[in-house]
């Protein structure tokens, strides 16, 4: 049976807010969790991923989990360690103890951010970035997503908990940079992909890239499509305006060289 009650972690965040608007129309009852309170959602669970007791309560009785919570940009290693590495481990342990069978894990393109990007259009003949491209994290953040993918693989092989790990491109209401034209995932396609990841049968551990069917796509969407995902959006209608404002990506621009763009070169700023 398709999962009905789904725990959505990171529900206060940008993508969490978009998804809690879109997913109920697919018939899901969402249980919300975030470290921050969510306005207008008195039943949301306010808890940190380090709080194992709270996680144990949160996962009890759910059919599946969508795990979006965590630090979503580069940060000092100690913070990434707590929120993304230990936090994701804590959630998988809670799922194992409660017998939850399916998790959808929000990985990121930054797990493979140092991969040279193909040219912008499939017409160029460049191969799309494959699913089995070697890991090349571009940040401690990307490293934590690489860890999450391997953790999910371990929990499938050892404990039979299924995961669809999605290397998300950029999930925002609209693409705002030329790079995003290639990796944008419209919110509506994001909801379609999450629904496919929750309902496809026998996924075991499955890794997919997450984006719309962009004309300038950089990666292989075949494993996402194999789940039943049929993207309906394309960033191309935004292309002319963004290129007029920002120019085409030129050699020397990190967005031209690597999938992860500026995550590859920007020195992290360490808050004191
Ligand atoms: P966001 O930063 O807007 O939201 C993340 C949420 O997680 C926040 O509400 C935050 O309060 C919560 N959170 C952080 N640490 C926590 C902790 N220790 N305990 C409990 N809650 C905690 O990020 P966004 O854009 O919504 O992304 C959601 C997920 O998808 C993240 O895991 C991110 O890494 C991943 N992702 C998002 C992409 C995007 O384009 N939006 C692209 C690639 C990956
Ligand atoms: C990510 O992993 C971030 O969470 C998101 O905020 C965007 O920066 C996205 O990657 C991107 O590469 O555009």
From TrEMBL:
The name of this protein is NAD(P)-dependent oxidoreductase
Boundaries of each NAD-dependent epimerase/dehydratase domain copy?
6-170
Q: So what family is this one in?
A: Belongs to the NAD(P)-dependent epimerase/dehydratase family.
What organism is the protein native to? Streptomyces luomodiensis
Q: What keywords are assigned to this protein? A: NAD, Oxidoreductase
The record's annotation in InterPro entries points to: Epimerase_deHydtase, NAD(P)-bd_dom_sf
Which parts pass through the membrane? none
Indicate the secretion signal residues.
none
**Which Pfam families does the record cross-reference, listed alphabetically?**
Epimerase (PF01370)
Q: Which residue spans adopt a coiled-coil conformation according to this UniProt entry?
A: none
């Amino acid at each position: 049976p398709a999962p009905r009650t789904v725990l959505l972690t990171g529900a206060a965040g940008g993508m969490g807010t978009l998804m809690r608007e879109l997913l109920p129309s697919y018939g899901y009852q969402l249980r919300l969790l975030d470290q921050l309170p969510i306005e207008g959602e008195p039943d949301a669970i306010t808890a940190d991923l380090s709080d194992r007791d709270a996680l144990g309560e949160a996962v009890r009785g759910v059919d599946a989990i969508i795990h979006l919570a965590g630090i979503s940009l580069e940060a000092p290693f100690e913070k990434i360690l707590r929120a993304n590495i230990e936090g994701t481990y804590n959630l998988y342990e809670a799922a194992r103890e409660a017998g939850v069978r399916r998790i959808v894990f929000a990985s990121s393109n930054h797990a493979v951010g140092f991969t040279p990007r193909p040219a912008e259009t499939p017409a160029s003949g460049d191969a799309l970035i494959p699913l089995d491209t070697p890991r090349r994290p571009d940040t401690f953040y990307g490293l934590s997503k690489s860890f999450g993918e391997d953790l999910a693989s371990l929990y499938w092989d050892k404990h039979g908990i299924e995961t669809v790990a999605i290397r998300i491109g950029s999930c925002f209401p609209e693409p705002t940079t030329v790079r995003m034209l290639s990796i944008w995932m419209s919110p509506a396609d994001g909801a379609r992909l999450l629904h496919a990841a929750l309902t496809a049968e026998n996924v075991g551990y499955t890794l997919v890239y997450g984006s719309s069917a962009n004309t300038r796509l950089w990666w292989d969407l075949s494993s996402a499509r194999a789940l039943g995902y049929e993207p309906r959006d394309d960033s191309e209608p935004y292309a002319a305006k963004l290129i007029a404002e920002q120019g085409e990506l030129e050699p020397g621009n990190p967005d031209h060289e690597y999938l992860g763009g500026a995550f590859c070169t920007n020195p992290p700023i360490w808050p004191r």
